[in-house]
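Quick note —
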Amino acid sequence: MTLLDAYALVAFLIGGPSSATVRGLLREGDTAVTTANLAETLDVAERRYAIPVLRSMEFLDPLLDGPLTTLALDVRIAVRAATIRSQHYDRAKRDLSIGDSILIASAGPADRIVTADAAVLAVAGRLQLATVALADKG
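Predicted structure written out below.
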Protein backbone atom coordinates (compact mmCIF):
# COMPACT_ATOMS: atom_id res chain seq x y z
CA MET A 1 0.00 0.00 0.00
CA THR A 2 1.10 3.58 -0.68
CA LEU A 3 0.38 6.00 2.16
CA LEU A 4 -0.06 9.65 1.17
CA ASP A 5 0.65 12.41 3.64
CA ALA A 6 -1.27 15.68 3.81
CA TYR A 7 1.26 17.50 1.63
CA ALA A 8 0.69 14.98 -1.17
CA LEU A 9 -3.08 15.43 -1.07
CA VAL A 10 -2.83 19.21 -0.83
CA ALA A 11 -0.53 19.19 -3.88
CA PHE A 12 -3.16 17.11 -5.68
CA LEU A 13 -5.93 19.57 -4.71
CA ILE A 14 -4.08 22.75 -5.70
CA GLY A 15 -2.10 21.43 -8.67
CA GLY A 16 1.17 21.93 -6.79
CA PRO A 17 4.65 20.84 -7.89
CA SER A 18 4.02 17.21 -6.93
CA SER A 19 0.48 16.88 -8.26
CA ALA A 20 1.49 14.85 -11.34
CA THR A 21 3.36 12.35 -9.17
CA VAL A 22 0.40 12.04 -6.81
CA ARG A 23 -2.05 11.58 -9.70
CA GLY A 24 0.19 8.79 -11.03
CA LEU A 25 0.25 7.07 -7.65
CA LEU A 26 -3.54 7.33 -7.39
CA ARG A 27 -3.88 5.77 -10.86
CA GLU A 28 -1.73 2.86 -9.69
CA GLY A 29 -4.29 2.21 -6.95
CA ASP A 30 -3.75 0.72 -3.51
CA THR A 31 -3.27 4.15 -1.95
CA ALA A 32 -4.39 5.25 1.49
CA VAL A 33 -4.46 8.26 3.78
CA THR A 34 -4.72 8.22 7.55
CA THR A 35 -7.74 10.01 8.92
CA ALA A 36 -5.33 12.34 10.76
CA ASN A 37 -3.65 13.26 7.46
CA LEU A 38 -7.04 13.70 5.78
CA ALA A 39 -8.00 16.17 8.50
CA GLU A 40 -4.69 17.99 8.04
CA THR A 41 -5.24 18.10 4.27
CA LEU A 42 -8.65 19.71 4.67
CA ASP A 43 -7.32 22.17 7.24
CA VAL A 44 -4.33 23.26 5.14
CA ALA A 45 -6.40 23.53 1.96
CA GLU A 46 -8.82 25.89 3.68
CA ARG A 47 -6.40 27.94 5.78
CA ARG A 48 -3.58 28.36 3.25
CA TYR A 49 -5.36 28.08 -0.10
CA ALA A 50 -8.91 29.25 0.73
CA ILE A 51 -10.45 26.00 -0.52
CA PRO A 52 -13.43 25.32 1.72
CA VAL A 53 -13.50 21.90 3.38
CA LEU A 54 -16.67 20.89 1.54
CA ARG A 55 -15.13 21.88 -1.82
CA SER A 56 -12.01 19.80 -1.08
CA MET A 57 -14.25 16.88 -0.20
CA GLU A 58 -16.03 17.21 -3.56
CA PHE A 59 -12.66 16.41 -5.17
CA LEU A 60 -11.62 13.77 -2.65
CA ASP A 61 -14.89 11.87 -2.21
CA PRO A 62 -14.67 10.11 -5.60
CA LEU A 63 -11.15 9.01 -4.71
CA LEU A 64 -12.30 7.69 -1.34
CA ASP A 65 -14.80 5.50 -3.19
CA GLY A 66 -12.04 4.19 -5.45
CA PRO A 67 -8.25 4.22 -5.37
CA LEU A 68 -7.82 5.96 -2.00
CA THR A 69 -8.82 4.31 1.25
CA THR A 70 -8.73 5.81 4.73
CA LEU A 71 -6.89 4.30 7.65
CA ALA A 72 -8.53 5.03 10.98
CA LEU A 73 -6.54 5.60 14.13
CA ASP A 74 -6.87 2.73 16.58
CA VAL A 75 -5.21 2.07 19.93
CA ARG A 76 -2.37 0.02 18.44
CA ILE A 77 -1.48 2.75 15.94
CA ALA A 78 -1.87 5.46 18.61
CA VAL A 79 0.61 3.70 20.90
CA ARG A 80 3.03 3.13 18.03
CA ALA A 81 2.73 6.77 16.90
CA ALA A 82 3.41 8.06 20.41
CA THR A 83 6.44 5.79 20.69
CA ILE A 84 7.79 6.90 17.30
CA ARG A 85 7.36 10.57 18.15
CA SER A 86 8.88 10.28 21.61
CA GLN A 87 11.91 8.46 20.20
CA HIS A 88 12.50 10.56 17.07
CA TYR A 89 11.16 14.08 17.69
CA ASP A 90 13.70 16.87 17.98
CA ARG A 91 12.39 20.43 17.92
CA ALA A 92 15.45 21.81 16.14
CA LYS A 93 16.48 18.89 13.91
CA ARG A 94 13.43 16.70 13.34
CA ASP A 95 10.11 18.45 13.98
CA LEU A 96 7.90 15.40 13.69
CA SER A 97 4.20 16.18 14.22
CA ILE A 98 1.78 13.73 15.78
CA GLY A 99 0.07 13.47 12.36
CA ASP A 100 3.42 12.54 10.80
CA SER A 101 3.93 9.98 13.55
CA ILE A 102 0.51 8.47 12.88
CA LEU A 103 1.38 8.23 9.19
CA ILE A 104 4.64 6.41 9.95
CA ALA A 105 2.96 4.19 12.55
CA SER A 106 0.31 3.19 10.01
CA ALA A 107 2.87 1.87 7.54
CA GLY A 108 3.72 -1.79 7.43
CA PRO A 109 6.91 -3.38 6.11
CA ALA A 110 5.51 -3.76 2.57
CA ASP A 111 4.10 -0.21 2.41
CA ARG A 112 5.64 3.03 1.21
CA ILE A 113 5.15 6.57 2.51
CA VAL A 114 4.77 9.49 0.10
CA THR A 115 5.89 12.87 1.46
CA ALA A 116 8.07 15.92 0.95
CA ASP A 117 8.67 16.22 4.69
CA ALA A 118 12.35 15.74 5.54
CA ALA A 119 11.57 14.62 9.10
CA VAL A 120 9.15 11.94 7.90
CA LEU A 121 11.63 10.75 5.27
CA ALA A 122 14.40 10.55 7.88
CA VAL A 123 12.37 8.67 10.48
CA ALA A 124 10.84 6.30 7.91
CA GLY A 125 14.37 5.58 6.69
CA ARG A 126 15.55 4.83 10.22
CA LEU A 127 12.63 2.45 10.61
CA GLN A 128 13.46 0.86 7.24
CA LEU A 129 10.18 1.88 5.62
CA ALA A 130 10.05 2.57 1.90
CA THR A 131 9.40 6.15 0.84
CA VAL A 132 8.64 8.25 -2.20
CA ALA A 133 10.13 11.73 -1.83
CA LEU A 134 8.01 14.44 -3.42
CA ALA A 135 9.34 17.77 -4.66
CA ASP A 136 10.30 19.91 -1.67
CA LYS A 137 7.47 22.00 -0.36
CA GLY A 138 9.74 25.03 -0.38
